[in-house]
Amino acid sequence: MFSIRLNELSFPTEECSARWIGQGTLVSRTNLNWDLPTLGIVSSHSEFNGFASSEWQTKLMAAIRFASQQGYRVLFARDTPYSLAIRTACTSLQVPAIELLVSNQQGTLSRATPEIEDVALRQNGSLVRVSLALERPSDRTDLLHLPIHDRAVVSLSRYLFALEIRSKGKMAELIDLRLRDTAFSPGSVILGIRYEKDLAKKSGNTIAKRWLDQGVIGWISHAGMEVEPSTSTLRMPCHSHGPSTTVPIFFASQWQPLEGKFLIHCTRARRGPWPDQSIEQFHDEIFETPWKSPPTAMDSLMRILEKQRLVATSALKPGSQATVSFSACSLAELMASRRFESHLSRWDWEPYGLMISSQWLASLSCQQVRYCLKAEMQSLSTEESTFAQVYSDTGNGRDWRVEREWRVADDVRLHQLPFSQGAVFVASIDEANRISHLSRWPICVVD
């Protein structure tokens, strides 16, 4: 193990480090020369997995290629939602990088995961994990409310590349403080500018304009100049498939199955990895193909039809076994009662999914969920909790018994589902026509 005291760094000055971070030690497994220039990469993160967008990824590539051209090492904080995106890009492009972890007040690393660290170090010998062990925090009152890991990157970077900054966010406040600090060289901050036209806004008081007047270097992202694609529910995806097949398309009002004959599975907009995808695979994917627009519930449905599988998940469910959920409510009941769950930033049910025969699901040991209170849930065995759910004081105070949930404790392999035992539902005729070549079952259009 190798270590260096913050007050031994040639950059920034000892007095600057004490003000921004405090007193502490940088520790790494390899001997690291901190005199070499570093390019810190930071970003605001206003929306869930915003780093998956093509625009954000374009700016990230610009920053990393700039570091490679100038011979800088990339510095980024691990304790950010986008850290793995930066690591994946640096690893793929073989650009030297430092991943910084900051210890909490108890002296332990904030999110240290040795297994992930070892994988990262094996993948790219130029990626170094450095931990910052703080002994005494900064006593500067105007900095204490700002995240220590962001403070560390902003202050320890000789050059700083800000990918995307929210004007009233904490990262903007940090950069404002750096620009006013004479310990940092003028012109050492680079700002990714979303559109060239942003600089011509009549208001004249955008954060980009203000910072450019203070000596920040603007890096214009030409990705923003591209013609925006239509939403993913309207464009025709490119699939490799045989001759188109024709399946019946009908409106929901034309189909009234007997109550309990079909169970419903709604798909949701994708907000991160697919259910059968690891976090590393997810970042590899967005590195290769960033999101032009966030994937929708329709995209999720199309992937299910292509894969012919509903993948079991354990998110927001008790017990250790992953399951696939269904509702015994009718399609009309679900759509009439749907509401936005603000604590999850998503709708509870979407007008996309599958209706599957309850008789066929019974052959997969599909079981009705037992609703109970928190105290009762704690007394259940692991097997019992697989088919149990707390119904009160969860989901923003909602009583989830209205869902009438059923579960299958395994993936549901749809290639075994007969034509007469299932149906797909979407929100429009246009979408029904666009997936007719994928569906092996009738397609219902939600009224």
Tally of individual domains? 2
SS element count, helices: 14
The first-level CATH class name of the largest domain: Alpha Beta
Category by helix and strand content: alpha/beta
β-strand number = 23
Looking at the overall shape, the CATH architecture of the largest domain is: 3-Layer(aba) Sandwich
Order of strands side by side in the largest beta sheet?
1-2-6-5-4-3-7-8-9
Q: How would a textbook summarize the main sheet? A: 9 strands, mixed
- The coarse silhouette is elongated
Give average pLDDT, whole number. 80
Name the poorly predicted regions. 105-124, 223-245
CATH topology value of the largest domain: Rossmann fold
Topology:
Blueprint: E1 2-5, H1 14-20, E2 22-28, E3 38-42, H2 54-70, E4 73-77, H3 83-93, E5 97-102, H4 114-123, E6 127-137, H5 148-156, E7 159-162, H6 170-180, E8 189-193, H7 207-213, E9 217-220, E10 249-251, E11 262-266, H8 279-288, H9 297-307, E12 309-310, E13 324-327, H10 331-337, E14 340-341, E15 346-347, E16 353-357, H11 358-362, E17 367-368, E18 370-372, H12 374-377, H13 382-386, E19 388-390, E20 405-408, E21 412-413, E22 422-426, H14 429-434, E23 443-445
Parallel strand pairs: 3-4, 3-7, 4-5, 5-6, 7-8, 8-9, 10-23, 18-19, 22-23
Antiparallel strand pairs: 1-2, 2-6, 11-16, 12-21, 13-20, 14-15, 16-22, 17-20
